[in-house]
Amino acid sequence: MKIIRVQNQIEGGQVAFSLLKDEMAKGAKTLGLATGSTPLAFYDEIRKSDLDFSDMTSVNLDEYVGLAADNDQSYHYFMQENLFRAKSFKESFLPNGLASDLQEETRRYDQVIAEHPIDFQILGIGHNGHIGFNEPGTSFDVTTHVVNLTEDTIKANSRFFDSIDDVPKQAISMGIQSIMQSKMIVLMAYGQGKADAIKQMIEGPVTEDLPASVLQKHPNVVVIVDEAAASALD
Ligand code: GLP
Question: How many domains does the chain have?
Answer without folding.
Answer: 1
